[in-house]
Amino acid sequence: MTSDWIVYPPPDPLSHVNNGAVYIRSKSKKDMGRRGHFVKLLDEEETTESAKKTATAKQSESKRWTRTRTRLVVNVLKEKNNRNVADTSNCASKKEVVDGNSHEQAFYTATFRPASIIPIYGTRTRNKIILTECTDQYRKLAASQLLENDHVLEIGCSNGECSLYIDKYLQKGTFIGFDISQKMIAEAKDKFSGRDGIPTKLEWDEKAELWRQYGDDNYVKFFTIDPFTDPQRAYKYATTIDSRNEDGNIKGVEIKPTVIFIDIGGNRELDPVARMISWAKENFNPRLCIIKSEAMMQNLNECQEKYRQSGGLGEGKESKLKRQKLDKEQKSRANVAVKKNGVVVNGEDWFENIVKNPNDVSDTVGVRCNPCTAPGFIHPLKAPLSLSPITNQPICRFHNYAEKGCKKKDACPFDHIHCHLCKKPGHRALDCKQ
């Protein structure tokens, strides 16, 4: 299935607001922000001391010292609880006429700094993937893109720090967190069990027509699992929501996640991130995926630079000659470009190339690529968790990826028999030819 790829923040911070629906960030951490509809850009002039200091000596002292600042005019929805409003396009005027009578519209017009405005990327359409590389931007997207009734799956939730931030903006939806570390999952559960204002009783959800149990037992769940090693169980955990019917009986309701967050290490190697995105797309078909990956952003920038050097989107003779010199394989890796508004041109082709040819991409953060052998990780613990096919015991990553092997040798509690990569006995991952 084809996805629309978007980079956040976009290269031009003002070009992306023309889409219409926007989220207005609040200065207060307690305030959940508001939604509205972008109207226009406005340039204002103001007198400042800084402008006066930067003026040249030749300019008259009597001149009014000014600077121009850009502001965004937005029609803001008045309702504080407006997170379920998917379409703001009707916010066009302050008055509306119904049955010949004038009524006050449910929004007001105000101006805001560009930094406080985040675009809402099409809540009515599916298969959008937003890529970022910073934790701060990752959390801004959680605040701006979620609807109150979304079903969220976070892969790589760690100790639940970002999970708390995501859950803040979910009021009627569900949250499920995955991580491979039992210690991190335990810390995440502790964070959520200590929250204030979490109802623990059963409440009837009229929209879903089921009894929903809020609290750590159902509304929020965490699992220690790796979708790579146990994809069937991971799918079951991600889609099964325990609830009660009117008779009081507990029943598992299958609800696929509508929004998926993926942050498996942040700077982790490129191939596992790409495979995780593929797994999420194929199994859940979410309306939105938000990815935090330094390696993927680095590869995208490198491919875009290759495309620019090869002539980019130019139409001149010289550009065409340069493009003709590129063979098909190079061209498939270098035909990606990011527009000013953050939309990635040929983003799906770029992603498919990563998935199909993981060894052909440029070296990325945390991994040394070798087309003949398994990846050599800068640190063995950067490799994903892999379990023995016989005992379900974790396979030792130091034995498989450290050049000198595991220092604990026979005293190591982990599996030294099976390959971490192919799970066959008799060799290490560094020597694996699969």
TrEMBL record:
Signal peptide, first to last residue: none
Spans annotated as Disordered: 308-333
Matching SUPFAM superfamilies: S-adenosyl-L-methionine-dependent methyltransferases
Comp. bias intervals (Basic and acidic residues): 315-332
UniProt keyword list: Metal-binding, Zinc, Zinc-finger
Domain C3H1-type: 390-419
InterPro entries documented for this protein: Methyltransf_25, SAM-dependent_MTases_sf, Znf_CCCH
Residue spans, zinc finger C3H1-type: 390-419
GO molecular function ontology, one term from the record: zinc ion binding
Name this protein carries in UniProt: C3H1-type domain-containing protein
Organism (species): Chaetoceros debilis
